[in-house]
TrEMBL record:
It comes from the Bacteria. Residues 209-327 form the DNA mismatch repair protein S5 domain. This is DNA mismatch repair protein MutL. Belongs to the DNA mismatch repair MutL/HexB family. This protein is involved in the repair of mismatches in DNA. It is required for dam-dependent methyl-directed DNA mismatch repair. May act as a 'molecular matchmaker', a protein that promotes the formation of a stable complex between two or more DNA-binding proteins in an ATP-dependent manner without itself being part of a final effector complex.
Length: 339
């Protein structure tokens, strides 16, 4: 048997990166969530080749102090929580302090950042987890990440990437969800030089829906705002006349996070049953506002699935909220022609 050895930090980070970073969309998710956590109200994302060769994320948030840039890239370094008790009332999107170290471990990453108070910005280059340079530079307030050549040093993982087109699709889906959960942030998404998405950041969810899904959907929405037992549901339902052939038009957010939830889908679809044909799925953008203690966000590193403490009650509340709304008399069972 070979001797037992503790792995060096670069290797540890590379392995850990596998938990967080599966594909370009995972990197975009982490960087955009950081931008939102930094208070940005404008975020531009640009990718080339599905994000495999380049991801650029630019925000106008608070920036990182020059003398904290290095530590931001250390594993388990975060400005967002201090202790495990904080986990029960997290308001920020990130909190594990794993993203930047993971991204840096498997790409060539460049960061340019400046806080409002600083006279100069900082440019930091780190490749495969190893620092290349750190220097002062002129920069606007905010932060820009340039992430190049995903998995250039992990061929085993590079093999599992799909075509640039498929990867770009994942990034686009992700940005749609992020825009729907943050109407107050203006998102701009460019893929291979082409504009794919632009939202105004005016805070109106309906306008974001319009930007993403177009006129027909935006003209056939029912607003919803329902509260019961500490659970508040807000957002929009599509009128039954605009039901769809698949589940891709069901968007759920819990305390601002996009989530997949078979339970919520089931409840929503059950509530639509009396109003639609079989094998049709509703359009919905539903935001669930719930006390942080009612949910466990710590279920999975990518934080897509989360667990409610009281699943059955949530099922019932969603059903009731949706079914009642669909029964309201003002609802005309006819498509409105957009003007
Ligand atoms: P986490 O988001 O879990 O704290 P990250 O590895 O994603 O961990 O980021 C580490 C730290 O770097 C953050 O806690 C934050 O202080 C800082 N940071 C990262 N991205 C940005 C950004 N776009 N603007 C300002 N600060 C940032
Ligand atoms: Mg983060």
């Amino acid at each position: 048997m070979p001797h037992i050895q503790v792995l060096d930090q670069v290797t540890i980070d590379k392995i850990a990166a596998g938990e967080v970073i599966e594909r370009p969309a995972s990197i975009v998710k982490e960087l955009v969530e950081n931008a939102v956590d930094a208070g940005a109200d404008s975020v531009t994302v640009e990718i080339r080749d599905g994000g495999i060769s380049l991801i650029r994320v630019m925000d106008n948030g608070c920036g990182i102090e020059g003398d904290e840039v290095r530590s931001a890239f250390l594993r388990h370094s975060t400005s967002k929580i201090r202790s495990v008790e904080d986990l029960t009332h997290i308001s920020s999107l990130g909190f594990r302090g794993e993203a930047l170290s993971s991204i840096a471990a498997v790409t060539r990453t460049e960061l340019i950042t400046k806080t409002e108070d600083a006279q100069f910005g900082t440019r930091y280059v780190i490749e495969g987890g190893k620092e290349v340079s750190l220097e002062e530079t002129g920069a606007p307030n905010g932060t820009t990440f340039l992430v190049r050549q995903l998995f250039y040093n992990v061929p085993a993982r590079r093999k599992f990437l799909k075509t640039p087109m498929t990867e770009a699709g994942h990034v686009q889906d992700l940005l749609m969800h992020l825009s729907l959960s943050h109407p107050e942030v203006s998102f701009h998404f460019i893929s291979n030089g082409q504009e794919k998405l632009r939202t105004s950041g005016n805070g109106k969810l309906k306008d974001v829906i319009y930007s993403i899904y177009g006129r027909e959907v935006a003209a056939n929405l029912l607003d919803i705002d329902y509260e019961k037992g500490g659970l508040r549901i807000t957002g929009y339902l599509g009128k039954p006349v605009i039901t769809r052939g698949n589940r891709n038009f069901e968007n759920f957010f819990v305390n601002g996070r996009y989530v997949k939830s078979p339970m919520i889908s089931k409840s929503l679809e059950d509530a639509y049953k009396d109003f639609t044909m079989q094998h049709k799925f509703p359009f919905a953008v539903l935001h669930f506002h719930v006390n942080g203690e009612e949910i466990d966000v710590n279920v999975h590193p990518t934080k897509m699935e989360l667990r409610f403490q009281r699943q059955q009650e949530v099922y019932g509340t969603v059903y009731e909220a949706v079914h009642r709304r669909l029964l309201e008399p003002e609802l005309i069972q006819k498509a409105e022609v957009p003007d």
